[in-house]
Amino acid sequence: MTPDEFRQAGAEVVEWIARYMEQAGDYPVLSTVDPGEVRANLPPSPPRWPEPFADVLADMDRVVMPGITHWQSPDFFAFFPANASGPSILGELLSAGLGVQGMLWATSPACTELETHVLDWMVELCGLPDRFGSDGAGGGVIQDSASSALLVALLAARERAGGAAVLGRLRAYTSSHAHSSVEKGARIAGLSAEQLTMVGVGPDYAMDATALGMVMDADRAAGLIPFFVAATAGTTSSNAFDPVADIAAVAATHGAWVHVDGAMSGSAAVAPEFRFVNDGLDRVDSYCFNPHKWLFTNFDCDCFFVADRQALIDALSILPEYLRNRATESGAVIDYRDWQIPLGRRFRALKLWFVLRHYGVEGLRHHVREHVALSQEFAGWVEASPQFVLAAPTPLNLVSFRHRGGDAVNEAIRDRLNESGELYLTHTVLDGHVTLRMSIGALATQREHVERAWRRIEVVARSLAGSDPTL
Question: Domain 3-69 is of which CATH architecture?
């Protein structure tokens, strides 16, 4: 493809994306294809000869789009949001066009230094502890996801605790409501199932710090080594906030590493009134949150911060001869290959930089505040309804609620709504009961979409009640 051909094809692709932005709300939110249907529309073998780009783009509409669940729809209320804003997409395009492999400072100084600077901006923007800034012992890096951030924190903690020599004695802890990435990370790090303890939660679904202290003390008395605690600032099921300060105090008595996953909720800290999400972070070893959820930066972009970057480097640095260079040996630069699992890395900082510059601090605060306000209003409708009940507190933009009719009814409501294509909800289980989740955070979502969703939920609930006289 020549530069001129690229110009023409690129313009067509940008127009296609712009048209999708305009029309994302017109599609059924959840894809309706059957298993195997997308592959059935693809030829069994790759093309022998080049095909016109117009044919490729046409197949986006014919083959791909029917199999897309529309995360950018204003009626997407499932899981957590995954926003892809215009400036972020353009930053990603530039990253792809430059084709940078930013494993070392030397392989593209701008890739490293822009990332370091943008992560320092994030410390300021979100009111994070100064210890996470690059001007001290700590610093930040962009990981692909919170799962990778958890894993590298776990590996750093493992090495700090003694590494392979004590591996069998190590014990890690997390909440029974923590993300599945904790359990997966423990497996990858070489821990057996009994080496990860799921600590119970209180009535607010947050980790019980007293229970954590008891189990850590018992493990220590048994000759084991409590070395790692994973806490959550905004759990996936209910948006519960673990008492990080209390957890850190308990962990400190054992010298255990504390990692906090801010997932979606960490983005709320751009607004000063929501900085309760940062409570206790001044006492932890590492922290991450995902701008690719609620700060309008397309996947993948996880901001990961450590209080002591040397612990991370000691755990992950391997320097073969072919990577040696004068800048690295000077000690004056950061080589982010030492902060992550893979060697290679993309220029992810460009898209986050574009988002920060396009929206500015006040623009980001505006959108976060709007989503929280809509969620609080939705929670009020639930509380006022004779059919539904709130299942958990609503500190930010996730509303956990259920119909009073029981699990089967809630499952039926979810399925009926999702099959209609008008909106997309997911569920969780709290206290043994199926619970619906209303996650409000899509960039395109306005009050009209939330109102329409609530009206539809009420209509479906009443129709089910009409078909079942016991409801």
Answer: Up-down Bundle (1.20)
